[in-house]
Amino acid sequence: MEPNHERESTVPLPKPEPSQPTSELSKNAKKKLARQERWEAKKADKKAAAKEQKKKETERKRKEWEESIAGITEEERVKVIEARMSLRKERMEKRLEEKNEKKERLVKAKELGQNVVVDVEFSHLMTPQEIRSLVQQIMYCYAVNGRCDTPAHLWLTGCEGEMDNQLKKIPGFDKWIIEKENKSYIEVLADRKDDLVYLTADSEDVLEELDLKKIYIIGGLVDRNRFKGITMEKAQEQGIRTAKLPIGNFLKMSSSQVLTVNQVVEILLKFLETRDWKTSFFAVIPQRKRSQADSEGNADNTVDEDIDEDEEEESEQKDDLLTSKKQCVEEIPSNKLVDEV
């Protein structure tokens, strides 16, 4: 993709070789491995610290509540408690209303929305960490799509093996309003093969417009540039059309051409809303991925040459997921909602 320089795949690829000894890794690979090990080492500490902070915050709110009602009469206390319960009920009702509205939009999109497929049948090409990264991107895709006034009709095809196992671990995944298929899109959508369009940066055809009759496919492979150009090869072998997003018509990319799966989905969703590619690209593509000229030509754009792109991208995804994880859960027990209000 230009969607997807780093996340691409093809059918007949062999399974990756077993992990190399550290001594045989390249300098760049060693740096990435060390960075990953540092991140893993900090992960547990951060999680424990966040848990402790949440516990302290809950305790602080409890004490504030007890102090606020300590010096009032019983009659006043009853009124305060009733008002608090009424506010919680109102918030719960609002959340339920928003959830129902989201459900209605997604159900409507199954009939009238733009079909977008995330092709995830390549878990054998990815490491466990890369599979988890792709699962997180899919979570964000679903969350962003659910927030849209006119969402797309999302598909996940090729959900097998470890990818399928990781997807099923997502809270509420079984209630997602999304097409989930173990088979490949080429099998599931065999009767609509002429409508399939694989989005890949290696295509010579530029996608000028989105057609509701077409089904756009995004390669779901977090490959860290190990498999460049292979979605193009896959599409050619299957005899389906390819296209690339018209990014080059509106901005120049910096040294990194990589866009995540969720960024491509969000660009498509933004275009469905605005029918304007430039607006869609500048709303979604991170500033660090644009060239200096493009950044200077647009307000609020800056480029930091010293940022490590892999770490920056991971940081962006983690920030986004703080919001999207909650939005991916279709049903939460009412008592938990009360506690969180």
From TrEMBL:
Residues 102-292 form the SAM-dependent MTase TRM10-type domain. InterPro entries: MT_TRM10-typ, MT_TRM10-typ_sf, tRNA_m1G_MeTrfase_euk. Keywords: Methyltransferase, S-adenosyl-L-methionine, Transferase. GO terms for biological process: tRNA N1-guanine methylation. GO terms for cellular component: nucleus. Residues 1-66, 292-327 are annotated as: Disordered. Residues 34-66, 318-327 have a biased composition (Basic and acidic residues). GO terms for molecular function: tRNA (guanosine(9)-N1)-methyltransferase activity; tRNA binding. It comes from the Eukaryota. Its EC number is 2.1.1.221. Residues 302-317 have a biased composition (Acidic residues). It catalyses: guanosine(9) in tRNA + S-adenosyl-L-methionine = N(1)-methylguanosine(9) in tRNA + S-adenosyl-L-homocysteine + H(+). This is tRNA (guanine(9)-N(1))-methyltransferase. The gene is 11407996.
